[in-house]
Amino acid sequence: RIVPDPVLLAKRLAKYNISINSLERLDNTHWFYRVDMSRAVLPARELKAGESFQLIRPIRPVWFNVSKIKRLILRERPGSHWYADVVVYDKMLHILSMKQNDTRTRYMNLKLPPDAVYVKVSDRFTLENLKSGLQITAKGEK
Questions:
Q1: 40 contacts: CB under 8 Å, gap ≥ 6
Q2: Alpha carbons 128 and 11: distance in angstroms, whole number
């Protein structure tokens, strides 16, 4: 078995505000980690009310921090054929809502629940469908 280097693991987790509180070696190949994830954050772009930008050719699903906005507007850009796959999460990454379309999505006006913190935006089938991208607009300050 390969045992991860505890120092490298701690450094990697620290990038997400996750800390290892204690570490105990059980035997040559087993370790017990006590991990504090109470302040954990995802590497997600924070959106502010009134912000608008173009998301062009994503290579993986895109995560946004929506903790400061009330509504997210997503528009398909000309040349794309988007089949929406949008998931809204709370701070602990519990799913609050999900929009998945098997038909082309040209426009989505997403009212966010008060406890929404993250939104993951993708395509239901393949990100190749977003070759021209999406127009993202954040509305309403929480």
A1: 16, 17, 18
A2: 34
Q: If we measure between CA atoms, which residue out of 60, 52, 62, 67 comes closest to residue 136?
A: 52
d(CA 71, CA 131): 24
Average of per-residue pLDDT across 44-58: 96
pTM: 0.81
Average pLDDT score over the chain:
93
Distance CA 106, CA 127 (A): 15
What's the CA gap between 90 and 88, in Å, rounded? 7
Burial 89-113 (b: 16+ CB within 10 A, else e): beeeeeebeeeeeeeebeebebebe
Q: Which residue has the tokens 């204690």?
A: 22
pLDDT tens for residues 8-21?
989 999 999 999 99
